[in-house]
Amino acid sequence: MKRRLAMILALTMGITALAGCGGTDSGTGDNAPAQSNTESTAQESEESAPASSEGGEITITMVESLTSPERTAIIREIADKYEAEHDNITIEIVSPPLENADNKITQMLMSGSGVDIVETRDLTITQYVNNSWIQPLDQWVEAWEDKDTLTSAAIAAMNKTGGEAYLLPYGFLWRGLYCHKGWFEEKGMELPTTWQEIHDTGVELTDSSQNRFGFAFRGGTLGHQYADNVIWAWIGTDILANPDAGYYLKDKDGETIFTMPEVKEALEFYKSLYTDCSPKDSIAWGFAEMVQGFVGGTTAMLIQDPEVISTCEASLEDEEWELIKFPTGPSGQAVYPNGFAGWAMASFTEHPDEVADFILYLSNPENNTYFAKNYATIPIHSTAPEIDSFFKEGRFAIYMEMAEDSNTYRCATQPMMYNAYATYKAEVDTMYQKWLTEEISTDELMAWLDGFWVDAYEQEGKKY
């Protein structure tokens, strides 16, 4: 079906290279690129057949994970251009509601039909590869004329699992610190640059009687990843066995960071962000709630991905807010996830050459730069700033500055390569909530974390 949706320019950000995080992924979950928690208005095509063809006509069905109407419109616009250049090919886009999109994708992949291109995230790629639901793209990438301008981060993400290109990333998300400038000016305080300053200024800015709080805490789904950021800022990444396996210690044969006194100190600090300067109901906050808390004037500070820039631009006056670099910890480092997602080919597609061609078309420098600018991701090609100067201007300049200082700004993530990660992700937020509500102690939380990952290492061996 040939159709054109109106283009909605919603989100903006960019950067030329990912010097500090070339070999890592997010573990961030939101960290992972997500435009919002709204549901896509694009119709979900239940009857779509993967790469079907009749009389030479081919339909390629792609399914999104991080859906929103605005982003679907961007993809649709690029797909329409491709269709105009390939008369025999139709691109169908399936856009499940964001909240259950990954479950929908899993069902489609398990059925072995209904999809040719799958949006694959740092949080889902291991599952898809382990179940043989997606196939490597190496033979097509090797012959791709645009492969030489891929950034080091794009190459690392592409080959993240098993050393083969199971996906072609479309972009990356780094976190920054959003601040209500006026709140700080009222108190005569500078904007914070460290985690400790976030706490201390947050306490000064908190006035619960006025429903004003210093910090937008995330205690709900994926909240544990914010605790990880604090922990890594305390201990640094140099002692890690691998930044992609950020819970294991270097040269320690499966020993974890969760026995270190510095980690206990970091956890106690992280807890104080909640108890001292955050709304009490933020123990259940996810992405939408923490963003609304900031733009709605409840919280002074928010740590989030660049996708929130457009929300701030739409909700706040320009002089009211600022986006500054990620805070450092006692290690001198600022450590955050390098969230990524991309396009993968279903292993059961009937037209792999055509599917690969469209994935490469989506990913060429012109289209990827356009997508990145309007979806608020860091592009995958080093030529992006030459194509659009937007990627080195305005508030997005902080990402350039962070990329140029790889000694300070680092990336790390959880050991997602372990099969045990799926269980961990399902259980860990509940454990953190029990700890935040005093049901368990810090020592008990650390013992659970240590035991889980020591057991994973014993069961699965060294996988990093």
What does this structure look like?
This protein is 39% helix and 13% strand. It has 464 residues and is an alpha/beta fold. It has two domains: 20-173 and 340-396, D-Maltodextrin-Binding Protein, domain 2 (3-Layer(aba) Sandwich), CATH 3.40.190.10; 176-336 and 418-460, D-Maltodextrin-Binding Protein, domain 2. Strands 1, 2, 3, 4, 5, 6 and 12 form a seven-stranded mixed sheet that branches. A four-stranded mixed sheet has the order 8-9-7-10. Strand 2 (57-63), helix 1 and strand 3 form a beta-alpha-beta unit. Helix 1 (69-85) runs antiparallel to helix 13, helix 7 runs parallel beside helix 9 (261-277) and helix 8 crosses helix 9. The radius of gyration is 22 Å and the shape is globular.
